[in-house]
Design a protein that fits this description.
The chain is mainly beta and 284 residues long. The chain folds into 2 domains: 31 residues; 244 residues, Pectate Lyase C-like, CATH 2.160.20. Helix content is 8%, strand content 50%. It has 1 helix and 23 strands. The strands form 2 sheets. It has a 12-stranded mixed sheet, with no helix packed on it. Strands 1-4-7-3-9-11-13-15-17-23-19 form an 11-stranded mixed sheet, with no helix packed on it. The radius of gyration is 24 Å and the shape is globular.
């Protein structure tokens, strides 16, 4: 009996030792905490850059993205302190992926920040961001189509300068994020699609509107603020269930679920399908 008790105690000690080793490595099997590593990132242009597709996948961390690369397709840095956070570049012809290994959440005391600059070359851009604080400036980039997907966290999207080419579609899909998009008219998009599942969302359509724009908005939950310039014509229609609270500021005209803002020139046509939440319309 005494030997059995000693054997049981040994198993407990072995289990505690394994647990401590796991916790010491950051838990969940993550590697040791390292001094912050700043890695230079560079992606050259393909030999034939026609129909170029770039996808950036950041599972956990913060992203700053803007134009400014002077060599190749992409330049920038990645700062991280866990080996699992090292970025990977996968290229197959004109399809290029800059990605991170699959993570459910950022390890304890983990640090992960990407600062990227893109070259002004025609491309299709996809940003798949699971969380974090992301600052995206896509002005002055000749994008043919662009997609942004983000889970939790905070994101800002801006087009400070007009897109030098017409953007076919701009698809925005946000979950429980705080999201702000400004100068959307500068995107030169034919169509903007926005899907929100919660959080605080602000879409600002400032900038230079060079052609008519169609906007489709689907909100399951959360709050939505739309800011439209008074110099363009806006036609907004709420389909289905009306948001529980609708606030209107500015010279909007309302007939039922239809709101109009007269300004002449090009037209922004907006269709909203919303669940519970708040909708506010502003004219600036």
């Amino acid at each position: 009996m005494k030997n059995k008790g000693i054997f049981a105690m040994q198993k407990v000690l072995i289990g505690l030792t394994a647990l401590l080793l796991t916790l010491g490595s950051g838990g969940c099997g993550f590697g040791n905490l390292l001094p912050p590593t700043v890695e230079n990132l560079s992606i050259p242009l393909p030999d034939s850059p026609a129909q170029l597709q770039l996808k950036v996948t950041l599972q956990q961390g913060n992203l700053q993205l803007n134009a400014g690369a002077t060599k190749g397709l992409l330049q920038g840095t990645a700062t991280y302190n866990r080996p699992e956070l090292k970025p990977q570049i996968l290229a197959m012809g004109n399809v290029i992926n800059l990605q991170q290994s699959e993570l459910q959440k950022l390890p304890s005391e983990g640090q992960n920040a990407w600062q990227l600059q893109l070259a002004p070359v025609p491309m299709t851009l996809t940003l798949d961001l699971k969380g974090g604080h992301n600052e995206l400036e896509l002005g002055a980039l000749p994008l043919g189509a662009a997609t942004l997907r983000q889970g939790s966290g905070k994101a800002t999207l801006s087009f400070a300068h007009p897109n030098p080419r017409r953007l076919k579609t701009l698809d925005l899909s946000l979950q429980t994020s705080t999201f702000t998009a400004t100068n959307l008219a500068n995107a030169r998009a034919q169509k903007i699609s926005f899907q929100g599942a919660g959080g605080q969302n602000h879409l600002d359509f400032g900038g230079e509107l060079r052609q008519n724009l169609q906007v489709s908005i689907t909100m399951a939950l959360g709050d939505l603020l739309l800011t439209l310039p008074p110099t363009v014509t806006t036609q907004l229609n709420i389909e289905g269930q009306r948001p529980e609270v609708v606030k209107v500021r500015g010279p909007w005209q309302q007939v039922g679920n239809r709101f109009t803002l007269g300004g002449g020139g090009k037209t922004i046509s907006i269709t909203i399908r919303a669940g519970t939440g708040k909708l506010e319309l502003r004219s600036r």
